[in-house]
């Protein structure tokens, strides 16, 4: 089988499997979206910049696990950063994380979207 045919078969398989997973997981995804909306309002999704294949950046989406103004509040919490001023901000019991967000992060459900 030629490289081109292999690429087409792989792409087709990726799309079909992704569609099936979306169908199977859609009740869970809808439930999570509704819980976020009902407990902490809009927006439901959080946009973040990701570096992809070949170093190309793209926008990724996650379920929102923090309060809407989390970036502003982070500036107020910088002195409590447990990573000693490095590029990563880590704070145990971060007050910006919503109750639903704690559950989503615990079970890695925040990246289902």
Could you explain the architecture of this structure?
The protein is of the alpha+beta class. The chain starts with a helix and ends in a 7-residue tail after the last helix. Strands 1-2 form a two-stranded antiparallel ribbon. It is built from three helices and two strands; from the N terminus they run αββαα. The radius of gyration is 18 Å and the shape is flat. The protein has helices at 3-40, 70-77, 99-106; strands spanning 45-51, 57-63.
Give a short summary of the structure.
The chain contains 3 helices and 2 strands. The protein is α+β, with helices and mostly antiparallel strands.
How confident overall, as mean pLDDT?
Answer: 91
For the sheet with most strands, the description reads:
2 strands, antiparallel
| Share of helical residues | 40-55%
| Shape, principal axes of CA atoms | flat
Distance between the termini: 35 Å
* Spatial ordering of strands, largest sheet: 1-2
The tally of beta strands, per DSSP, is 2
Measured by DSSP, the beta-strand proportion falls in 5-15%
Order of helices and strands: HEEHH
What would you report as the Rg, rounded to the nearest angstrom? 18 Å
How many helical elements? Answer: 3
Task: Record keyword descriptors for this entry.
113 residues, alpha+beta, two-stranded antiparallel sheet, 3 helices, 2 strands
What are the SSEs and their pairings?
Blueprint: H1 3-40, E1 45-51, E2 57-63, H2 70-77, H3 99-106
């Amino acid at each position: 089988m030629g490289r081109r045919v292999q690429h087409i078969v792989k792409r087709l398989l990726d799309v079909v499997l992704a569609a099936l997973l979306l169908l199977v997981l859609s009740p869970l995804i809808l439930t999570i979206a509704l819980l976020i909306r009902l407990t902490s309002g809009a927006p439901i999704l959080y946009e973040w910049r990701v570096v992809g294949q070949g170093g190309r950046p793209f926008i990724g989406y996650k379920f929102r696990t923090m309060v809407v103004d989390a970036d502003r509040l982070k500036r107020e919490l910088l002195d409590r950063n447990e990573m000693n001023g490095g590029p990563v901000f880590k704070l145990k019991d971060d007050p910006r994380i919503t109750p639903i967000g704690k559950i989503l992060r615990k079970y890695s459900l925040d990246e289902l979207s």
